[in-house]
Amino acid sequence: MEEHNWIQESADKIRDKLAAAAERNQGRLPFGRSTEQTREDYFRTGNPFCWENGLNGGLMWQMVHATQDRTCMRNAVDLESALAGNLRSPEKLGPVAGYQFLPTAVANFHMTRNEVSKQRGLDAAKAMAGCFLPGKGYLALCPLLAGPAPSVDSLLQLPLLYWASETTRDETYRGMAALHAAAVMHQLVREDGSVLPADEAGSRAGAQALALYGFGLSYLHTSDQQFLKAAEKTAAYFLSELPESGRVPEILGAEEQAGENDFAAAAASCGLILLSGLVKEDKDNVPPVSAALARAYAVAALRMLQALCRDRVDYRAETDTLLGDPVGDYFLTEAVWKLIGRELFIW
Predict the structure, then answer these.
(1) Which pLDDT tens digit goes with each residue over 181-240?
(2) How far apart are CA 242 and CA 236, in angstroms?
(3) Most buried of 10, 146, 164, 184 (most Cβ within 10 A)?
(4) What is the pLDDT of residue 58?
(5) Cα separations in angstroms, 335 against 112, 184, 211, 237
(6) What are phi and psi of 43, to 5 degrees?
(7) Does the pLDDT of residue 47 top 90, yes or no?
């Protein structure tokens, strides 16, 4: 399909850019605060519990899976080893354990069957489970928010608990994750499918993107139809506010815009590609409806990714980031890898 030649071309450019950055940043955190800062310096002077750290490792493992790049593998293993020190402080690690150890230790185990990495993943899941609040029925995650209320971005941490349940055959982990996802659904999803937090009207694009992806992942791991419904509902709102250009505004539904959100476009694309395959399992939809939804999700993902790859991505080998931050870079790479069939599924 000639009209989609841009997909492989973009994948090749992303591969070359990330390989160059990985080679240049050996022994450093890929997105460190200066070119002279070593990984050791970062973890001594910075915040080792910063949730973005894990996605740096995930980016490297996506490269390893797609290209067998040895430098990326060394960087991923080194980062995981540095993060392993956080396991000694489970009370600090718990709120960000999913983001830190799913894309690092668990990804490593998927790729290499490394038993040390497997144990690190299980220890991280135990720390995360320690955040469960029995009286409230959810996990106290995402310490950036005031108080322990459930948050939309916590949904992408839950697959660590789902994985731990599958690995240990202990359904306690799965039960906690499902209760948390249900709490997010009931407390944060509005009737029109938009999600909190938001301004007076509309929804922040990043939260909306993580909601549609996160609920889809919880359905994938539990087969609970309420999560598929929540994913479809939040996706419907996202698509209703998506401009024809594919450029995602910072706040969906707002009359005046303060800018664009590239991370939201990348993360939503990941979620929509997942949903395009899951929607056929919605028992309330007849096949023609499911097929139409699947196509709408796939078309929207392609439109957003094409806009990103054409207008927003920095492919220059001398710079370190694609979209300006490790989170956006990770989800962009995952989404493009999904399209070319080279993704390492870590969630």
Answers:
(1) 999 999 999 999 999 765 545 578 999 999 999 999 999 999 999 999 999 999 999 999
(2) 10
(3) 184
(4) 96
(5) 23, 24, 16, 20
(6) -75, -15
(7) no
| Cβ(167)–Cβ(214) below 8 Å | no
Please tell me the pTM assigned to this model.
0.93
HEC letters along the chain: CHHHHHHHHHHHHHHHHHHHHHHHCCCCCCCCCCCCCCHHHHHHHCCCCCCHHHHHHHHHHHHHHHHCCHHHHHHHHHHHHHHHHHHHCHHHHHHHHHHHHHHHHHHHHHHHCCHHHHHHHHHHHHHHHCCEECCCCEECCCCCCCCCCCCHHHHHHHHHHHHHHHHHCCHHHHHHHHHHHHHHHHHHECCCCCECCCCCCCEEHHHHHHHHHHHHHHHHHHCCHHHHHHHHHHHHHHHHCCCCCCCCECEECCCCCCCECHHHHHHHHHHHHHHHHHHHHCCCCCHHHHHHHHHHHHHHHHHHHHHHHHHHCCCCCCCCCCCCCHHHHHHHHHHHHHHHCCCCCCC
Average pLDDT over residues 19-42: 72
Measured distance CA(163)–CA(165) in Å, rounded: 5
264-279 exposure pattern, b = at least 16 Cβ within 10 A, e = fewer: bbbbbbbbbbbbbebb
Q: How many residues does the chain have?
A: 347
Of 125, 77, 85, 130, whose CA–CA distance to 101 is shortest?
125
Domains of the chain and any CATH numbers = 7-130 (no CATH), 135-312 (1.50.10.10)
Greatest Cα pair distance in the chain: 58
Structure token pair of residue 286: 């007849």
Whether the pLDDT of residue 160 is over 80: the answer is yes
CA gap 123, 215 in Å, rounded? 25
Query: What pLDDT shows up at residue 325?
Result: 84
Contacts of 316 (CB under 8 A, 6+ apart): 17
- What CA–CA distance (Å, rounded) separates 289 from 254? 29
Q: Is the distance from CB of 70 to CB of 22 less than 8 angstroms? A: no
pLDDT surpassing 60 at residue 1: no
